[in-house]
Amino acid sequence: MRVIHNECLGAMKSPIAHAMKFLHRALVNIAPEREQEFDDAYAYFQLEYVDSAKWICHVDPRKRFIRLSRRVVEVTWCASYAYMVFYLKMIQGQRVHEAREIDLHSDQELSAAMQLLSWAYENWLNNEDTPWPDNLPQPEESPRKGSFKQVADELCLCAMAYILHHELAHIRLNHSPDEKSTDAERDADYAAADWIMHPSLAEYDPKFVKRALGIAVALEVLTSRGIYTGEFADASHPPSYDRLVHTLRRFIDDPNHVVWGVVVATLKLHLDNASIPLPDATYECFLDCVEDYANALSRGLAEKETPDAE
């Protein structure tokens, strides 16, 4: 039997509760063609939501128990909203891997989206818990179909489904609760992506694009944290930029796929915001640009970890 502990949603003050109540459904809805397989593989697990401002996303594979905090979903929803507004208003149809000036406050909706992203990241990175600003976009009970809020809901649920399938993969792969291994984390990344990205889907099938964007957002949120903190990896996790690139490369063949375009645009958004210098280069395709950005982050991390010569 699967048990969802969602009692905290009733008293949750954050509007993210509107999205969180659908999270358990997203586990199946992200790949409905595998519903029976899901029932067979995960006949029993527990998922607990906690109303916490801490970033909590943890699984105990032996107990088949996952704990998830609202902070994870808040940041993911805000990133989903901001990325889509930014891409659709300012980037779509442009050659995003070439340099161009963009005024992030030239458009009212875009400005609000960027303020929302700043609020989410400042709360997350500074371990704060300021209330969701009333004057900025937020999840709603019934957003207008086709609105940015409705798109953010869908993209956030896809991203969260990938995150939760990563934790479920630890259960399915029989990982030890005490195992601190980059191989185990990489295996869980790939297993979650393989579960979601059904091989029958063509690369530009809307279902393929939507699922791939969800995976991209989930892994880019982790990468963007490293951009601001310099902490891309730990003893048990591969560098987040490697996870982003290598996971997506498993199923996206077209180096100019729209998903790579979104990743280029939104990575550069964070890199510019963090005042991180980028290679002065032009690129043949979006993937080349993403890989060069990842290499630049890798070099920066290596330089940080290498002590100065005496």
Structure notes:
The chain is an alpha/beta fold. The chain has one domain (71-305). The protein has helices at 17-20, 23-29, 35-41, 70-91, 108-125, 148-172, 182-196, 206-229, 240-249, 258-273, 286-305, and strands at 2-5, 45-50, 57-60, 65-69. The chain has a four-stranded mixed sheet. The protein is globular, with a radius of gyration of 19 Å. 39% of the residues are buried.
Short description:
The protein has helices at 17-20, 23-29, 35-41, 70-91, 108-125, 148-172, 182-196, 206-229, 240-249, 258-273, 286-305, and strands at residues 2-5, 45-50, 57-60, 65-69. With 310 residues, the chain is an alpha/beta fold.
What labels would you give this structure?
310 residues, alpha/beta, four-stranded mixed β-sheet, 11 helices, 4 strands
